Amino acid sequence: MTNEASSTVVTEVACPFCGLACDDLSVDTAGEALAVVGGGCAKAQAGFARLGVSHDGASARVGGQPASLEAACAEVARRVKASAQPVFAGMALDVGGMREVMELADAAGGVVDHLYSEIGWRSTRVVQDVGYVTTTLAEVKNRADLIVLVGTDVVSKASRFFERYVWNDEAMFEPAPAARRIVYLGGGLNTAAGQSPDGRAADVFDFDRARMPEALSTLNALLAKQPVSEAAPLGIELARWQALVEALRAAKYSVLVWMAGDFEPAQVDLNINAIMSAVRALNVTTRSNGLGLGGADGELNASMVHAWQTGYPMRTSFASGIPLYDPVHNGTARLVEQGETDTVVWISALNDKTPPPPEAKVVIAPPTLKLEHEPEVFIPVSTPGVHHVGHFFRGDKGAALPLRALRATRLPSAAKVAAAITAQLKEVSA
Amino acid sequence: MSVIKLTGGRVIDPANGINDQVRDIYVKDGRIVAALADGDKVSAEYNVSGRVVMSGAIDMHTHIGGGKVNIAREMLPEDHRGDPVARTEVTRSSCGYCAPGTLAAGYRYAEMGYTSCFEPAIIPMNARQAHMEMGDTPIVDTGGYAMLGSDDFLLRMLVANEDQKSINDYVAWILHSTQTLGIKVVNPGGISAFKFNQRKLDLDEQNAYYGVTPRRIIQTLTRAVHELGVPHPLHVHASNLGVAGNVDTTLATMEAAEGRPIHLTHIQFHSYGTEGDRKFSSGAARIAEAINRHKNVSADVGQVLFGQTVTASGDNMSQYRNAAFASPKKSAVMDIEMEAGCGVVPFKYKDQNFVNALQWAIGLEIFLMVEDPWRIFLTTDHPNGAPFTTYPHLIKLLTDRSFRNAMLDTINPDAKAMSNLAALEREYSLYEIAIMTRAAPARILGLTDRGHLAPGAAADIVVYTENADRERMFEKPDLVFKDGELVVRDGKVVKVVRGNTHVVKPEFDRSIEKKIEPYFRRFHSVRMNNFKISDDELCECGGGSKLIPHACGKRS
């Protein structure tokens, strides 16, 4: 909402540059690039500045030569049609972009894989194995009395977590936010943000984070009132572990926070399962919840749309005409490595920093993306929340935020490009 | 211009009192017309003589969109493998049995002759997602009911003893902001109570923090919905879901409405007594008697049918308890955004399990003992009692007593002995089936141009070949038209169209935002202006769905 018609500053803008999707940004649209003038963070400022230009002069390329959008889309359709197994990777998109790519992938008999799926499928396995007990950010803001950060500091990836949801001026229920207790499990984390406004340092269990399964096993054993033989598990006195368990039992609404991407990949489902085990044990007598944060680069936009349209989580193949879910088999890196795909199509409208794999023959991305190799087809696209409206799922699954159009551009959206390729593909097939 | 003629069909159109009369039906540009004007040229004629013609069916309570359904999808790949939907020239691929993808759900509903489906549990903060999922549910019209009653804003208003007018303004603001068609309350106040570690909340029990009782929430919200003139009465998922003895709570909940319209949803799950050796018995007779007596009360059944399904509910207090019975053994329980929560628990109803078998019988008893088909609705609470694809089977159970009794003979014998089902002779007629699946849901939702076949109605039309086996008849219609377009032939989708979104927009005093805006800034995770869904945004969420607002006749 613009408060004054004459102002060039747009307020209450939602940010698509990390999973927190803060929606209190003020963005000045006067300059050549968009400038965050209120409510942002470094990542938001950089993202709006870098992508928030009109991209004048950017053009599609086929074989390194300028091409019309139509010709480039037709070329992608031709390649996808001729492909034995296309893979649609990247997927840093808004909801609208993902919707259209899904239709394309189905028509093309492809595989869809987000750049974080290697972690994401392991997280999803937890809900398929045992399920979960979780909460969302507004609940944390008003209810949390004890917050345990498991192997993450959150702020390295989502810098405003404490500012927006922990150290608030007020909360609806007891305790006052400043009295909240913060515990970090794991060493090497940036724990400064966990210090309370009145200077109380957080309680840090400093150990090698690769040993998180042992730490969580210790907690679960103590919660189950089972003996723990070591005097100092992971070099930390048993009494401290015991005190943490007592604090969790005494808390009225404890929250155990993780970011799956901060765990060792091979430990993701193991660790989340262990967190859920602790949460379930605590809920027998009090309330305790998990809070998995993620969602950067449209991770949840991709996984949500994929699940609701097809019924399956990501890493599903449409090659046989029906969806087949196999997250181990259908990873881009594995398919490339084993020579099981001949065409990688990289589509990313929100992320212009992660380079596509060298095998990507087609790249559909912002023109600011630096490419190490010229792909066979490059189509520059606009960015949701910068150039066009859209929707973005926050990393706690608690909300989908509306994204604004703040800067005019002649570039098409990823959704429009995907739809054009699908239309061409159907024409080629007909 | 498109002009269609359906010639010689046996029309069953209860909203207009037409019971099996041979009539021609004319459709012009998606609407039913009385006759053709001079110069109108029929572009397609369908000879349907001897066949049964009804309006498109309406499912007034089906969990087809929103966060909890998507959790169920992610949770159950093993459910989906056996039920793929293959890509065709006109349809996309999808899959799923009890928690199908939106594409599979839309195709399957249309293939059964359903043309409108309503998601009954939209958490206001999750309304965008629900509309997006419904927008990706092809062919059928959609809409939803916004969940209130455990939201801290309303509970704070009740504690502050704010006047009814302010509460009505808030309720109307929620309907506008979430683009919904009605208001639902789930375990009134109980979802909030669970966050304060209460594990049950009876109708007159206080929320530990707010001191507010479920009864007060029901009184306040039935009044708000009534005074705002929202056509659909307050949609109530009552307290104590699934608990033996909850029939008393349910009867008391009816009384709590104080004579105002109230709709009790999936009432089968709320009709349990405590008689017998196992302290679990049917309360159906008492429930049916009360519905028959209270003309302000309507209900949908939430029939249980045997087999694998998944239960997905906003009632996380109950679902946390039910997680002990999960099959397969997994469950997801969430507290959500100071508004509500959800719980997803897979469940397998077994015909040899005493409780499950009696649940099956209780649902059927309620169907057969409630006299007025305009006030009892055919639902399985998809997917909670069974997936919606079981509706043809359920229709056969209602219309065919010998089939019903043959099924009854196969269930757990102790459950059979506890049920009076064998003695119930009633068999629903086709006319009554058309009431409970078409005319009545349209009327109770205020959809004036759906659920009937009079001139002016939207041309949502279904043609069946009559078959004494009603399951065969209703699972595969010959023809289905959606807004005048032929979308299904011989039970298969032949054309995919986009359905409309139905909403209500009651009048209210917009100055209520002066109270709501600071609340969002202080306590919520988003700004108020990013919470509200505008008309333009709704259409975008719906992938281009047309917005159909329905009139409200303000009563205060």
Tag the structure with descriptive keywords.
heterodimer; A: 430 residues; alpha/beta; Rossmann fold; Dimethylsulfoxide Reductase, domain 2; 3 domains; seven-stranded mixed sheet; five-stranded parallel sheet; 12 helices; globular; B: 556 residues; Urease, subunit C, domain 1; TIM Barrel; 2 domains; nine-stranded mixed sheet; eight-stranded parallel sheet; 33% helix; hydrolase activity (chain A); transferase (chain A); hydrolase (chain A); transferase activity (chain A)
Chain-wise SSE layout:
The complex is a heterodimer of chains A (430) and B (556).
Chain A: E1 9-13, E2 25-28, E3 35-38, H1 42-51, E4 60-62, E5 65-67, H2 69-82, E6 86-92, H3 95-108, E7 111-114, H4 117-129, E8 131-134, H5 137-143, E9 146-150, H6 161-165, E10 181-185, E11 203-205, H7 212-223, H8 238-250, E12 253-258, H9 268-282, E13 287-292, H10 299-310, E14 316-317, E15 324-325, H11 332-337, E16 343-348, E17 360-365, E18 377-380, E19 390-393, E20 400-403, H12 414-429
Parallel strand pairs in A: 6-7, 6-16, 9-10, 9-12, 10-11, 12-13, 16-17, 17-18
Antiparallel strand pairs in A: 1-2, 2-3, 4-5, 4-18, 14-15, 19-20
Helix pairs in contact in A: 2-12, 3-10, 3-12, 4-9, 7-8, 7-9
Chain B: E1 3-13, E2 18-28, E3 31-33, E4 44-47, E5 52-55, E6 57-59, H1 67-75, H2 77-80, E7 84-85, E8 94-95, H3 102-111, E9 114-122, H4 127-135, E10 141-148, H5 152-159, H6 164-178, E11 182-186, H7 190-195, H8 214-228, E12 234-237, H9 247-256, E13 262-264, E14 272-273, E15 281-282, H10 284-293, E16 297-300, E17 307-313, H11 316-322, E18 331-336, E19 340-349, H12 354-369, E20 376-377, H13 391-399, H14 401-408, H15 413-417, H16 430-445, E21 461-464, H17 470-475, E22 479-482, E23 485-489, E24 492-493, E25 501-504, H18 513-523, H19 528-531, H20 535-541, E26 547-550
Helix pairs in contact in B: 6-8, 9-10, 10-12
